[in-house]
Amino acid sequence: MPRFRPLLVCAALWFLALVPARVRAETGAEAWLRYRPLQEEAARQYESLPAGIVLLGDSLVLRSARGELIRGVRGMLGRTLREERDLPPEKAILLGTFSEMKALVPGLESRNKLHDDGFLLATQNVHGFDCLIVAAPTDRGVLYGVFALLAKIARNESLSPLQDIQQPAAPLRWVDEWDNLDGRIERGYAGPSIFFENGNVRADLTRAAEYARLLASIGINGCAINNVNANPRVLENEFLPQLARVADAFRPWGVRLSIAVDVSSPQLIGGLNTFDPLETRVSEWWAKKFNDLYRLIPDFAGVVVKADSEGRLGPATYGRTPADAANVIARALRPHGGIVFYRAFVYNHHLDWQNPKHDRAKAAYDNFHPLDGKFDDNVIIQIKHGPIDFQVREPVSPLFGGLEKTNEAIELQVTQEYTGQQWHLCFLPPMWKEVLDFDLHAGDGPTPVKDVVSGKTFHRPTGGFVAVVNVGMDANWLGHPLAMANLFGYGRLAWNPDLDAKEIAKEWTQFTFGNDTLVVRTISQMLLESWHTYERYTGPLGAGTLTDILGSHYGPGVESSERNGWGQWHRAGHEGIGMDRTAATGTGYVDQYRPPVARMYELLRTTPDDLLLFFHHVPYTYILHSGKTVIQHIYDSHYEGAEQAANLLQQWQSLAGHIDEDRYAETLKRLEYQAGHAIVWRDAVCNWFSRTSGIVDERGRVGHYPSRVEAEGMQLQGYVPFNVLPAETASGGQAIECVPPARDCSATLRFAGAAGWYELDVEYFDQNNGKSKFRVLIGDQVVDEWIADALLPASKPGGDASTRRRISGQALRPGDTIRIEGTPDGEEFAALDYVEIHKLP
Ligand code: GCV
C-alpha cells in the first residue's frame, strides 16, 4: 500500500488544482473597501513602498487619512506602515495639506493648481529621498487622495513614478436618505435605518460612521439623513443634540451632516400661528433655530426642502413662491455657511386626467423657470433627472436648461424604487451617463447636463450632484449584493461625470470581488446589460415603468397609471398608446426644451424609439425606426428581456467557486427570483396589451404557454379558485388559495408527457403577511418543500407577490401524479398560480 501513497497525493493535489479554492464567506459589509491581500506577483511591485508615514498637520480627517492608509496597506500588502512624527532619514509617505507641506516641499501648491476637494499624488525628492506625497488644499482632499492611492494598489497599478491630479467636477456631492424617525425608510429595501429607531437617533451609530467612511471613499461630502417628507421634530430643541451625535460620527470622514426640514416648522413646532416665509416672525424663528443648531454642530451643511408636493405644506399656502420659502431658510443659514437644497419636485397630484392638456411633466419647469434669478446664492435647486419620477427611462428634465441665474443640482436615485427594488439587478450608471451627457443646447457650443449642474455652463458659484440612497441595517447595505455598484457608480460620476460606465463597472467589480479575470469580465458584463434588460421586460419605448404606481411601485400594474390625478399617464387604450406632449397637438411640454431639442422631440420622425411614447400618442401599428410595429416591439422586447434575465442567472452560475460562498448564494437567490419575476412581468404586460389592442403576437407566444398547467385546472382538495386583480398579474387571471379554516390543501395534476428528465417551475404567491408552507410530491415521494417567507412588497396575491420555485432534475413518466400541498399562515393562503413542466436536454 505505501507505494501508492505518492500517487494518491498527486491525484488529490491535481483534483484540488482543478476545483477553484473555496473562498471564505463575506457579508458584503466592507463593500468596495475590502483590502484583500494581493497576489504575490502583484504585491512585488510595491516592495519599494516607503515604510514610514508622516502626517503633516492634525485633524480628525487627517488622522482618518493616515489610519486608512495604514489599514489598506496592511490588508493588501501585509505591512504595517510606521507612524513617524518627523521626516525620517529615509524615504517616506507624506500626507498633508499644501499649506502644511509648504515648508518641506516648497512650490508644491503653485505647481499643481487645485481647489476644493482635489488632490495630488506624486513621487518627489524630499531632502534627498524619493517620497510619496498625498497633498491637497483641504484635509478632505488629503483623505480622498489616500483612498485614490489605495485604489491604485487594489487594481495593481504602478506607483512609480506617480503624478496624478484629481479634481471633483462639482463642489456639492451629496446623498439623501429617506429615513423616518421611527426607523422605517421610505423606498428603502435593505432593512431599517442606520440612523434612527423608535423616534430617536440610534444609541449605537457604528454603522453611520462606517457609512461615512464608504461615502468618503467615493468623494461624497454631504449626507441628509432623514426623509424629505420631513418630520418637524428633527428641529425641536431636544432633538438637536441627537443630530449632533450623527455629525460626530460623520466628521472624521469629511461628510457634513444635513437634514430635511418641513417649511411649516415655525408653526408646527415653533408655536407661531403662521409659517408664511415673508413674515418677520417666521424669518426670526429660522434664524434663531439655526443659531441654536450651529452652536451644537458648527460644520452643519444645510438643509433639504420638499414643499408643496405630494401633500406637503409649502409657501403656496400663503400665495408665496418657492423662492420666498427657500430664501427665508437660506438667509438664516448664510451666516453659518449653510446651504438649502430646494427640490424642484413640486407638482399637483390631483390633475384632471380627462384634460388632454394637463401634464405632470411640465410642473417643475412651470414652477421654477419663472423664478430664475430670484433664489439666493446659497440655494441650489435640486432637480430629478427626468420630469416624472425615476422611471426606467425618461428624457432629461428641461428645467436643467431653464435656470441660468440659479444654482442647480441633479437628483439621481440609487435606491431602485422603480427599477426592481434591489430584488432585480439594475446597474444605473449607463442610464445616468446618458442623462449627464445629454446636450441641452442651452448656450454656445455643447452644454451637457453635467456641465450645467457643475455650475460651468452658466458660471454659477456652486452646484452638484445628489442621490437618494436609502442604505439600511442589512449587512451589505442595499440588500442585493450587486446593488452597491450603483452607489459606487454614483460617487464616481459625481466626482468625474466623464468616466465611462464600463470602467466604473470594472473598477467596482475589482474592488468588490477581486481581480480574477473571469469574475471581472462576467460581473462587469452583467452589470452593463442589466438596465436594458430591466427596461425590456418592464417599460417599453419611454412609456414609463408599467408598474403599480398607486402602491408598491414594484410589480406590473399597467392600468394603475391611468384615470387618476397622479399624472404618470401613458394613455394606453384600444387604439394606441403614448402621451402627446408635442406643441402642435399635445400638452406643449416639448417647448420647455431649447429649440434644437424641442424640434427633435416634436416630430415623430426625429424622436428616438426609446422615448417615442413619452412624447407621442401613436397607434399600435405605428412603425418604429427599427421597422417593427409598436405592438410587436412591446411583445418582442418583453420576451427578449425575460430571456436576458435568465441569461444573467446563467452568467452568475458560471462563477460558482470563484466567489465566496455567501455572496455567491445570496446573489444566486436574487437572480433566480429575478428570472422568474421577469416572466411574470412579461406575461402581465403582453397579455394586457394583447387584450387591450386586440392585436395578436405575430410570433404566437402571448397567451400560449404549452408547458403550463393552470392551478385552477388541477384536481383540487381544499384549494379554491379566485380571480386575481388586476387579472393580467396571474396566468389566466385566476389562481387558487387555501382559505382557513382549510389547513392542508392540495392541487394535483397527472403528467401526460413522454418519460424523461424534467424541471418543474411552480408559480406561487409569496406575501409579507404570512409564511405558508409548500410541498411537492411526485407520486408519494416528496421532491421539494419550502416556506414562502421572502419579504416582497406584497400583502395580497398579484404581480408583486408572484414567485417561482424551480425544481430541477425530476424523472417523470406518463401517468405520474404531481401534487402540490399548501399550508396557509397568517393572511397568506398558500396561493398557487400554475406549474410549468420543461423537458431537460
Ligand atoms: C419621499 C416619489 C416617491 C415618494 C418620494 C417622492 C419624492 O413620489 O414615490 O416616496 O417621497 O418621490 O421624491 O419626494
Characterization of the model:
It is a single chain. With 841 residues, the chain is α/β, with parallel strands linked by helices. The protein contains 21 helices and 29 strands. The strands form seven sheets. The protein has an eight-stranded parallel beta barrel. Strands 2-1-3-5-4-6 form a six-stranded mixed beta sheet. Strands 20-23-28-25-26 form a five-stranded antiparallel beta sheet, with no helix packed on it. Helix 15 packs across helix 16, helix 17 runs antiparallel to helix 20 (630-653) and helix 20 (630-653) runs antiparallel to helix 21 (661-693). The two termini are 43 Å apart. Bound molecules: 4-O-methyl-alpha-D-glucopyranuronic acid. 4-O-methyl-alpha-D-glucopyranuronic acid is lined by residues 178, 186-187, 227-229, 306, 310, 345, 389.
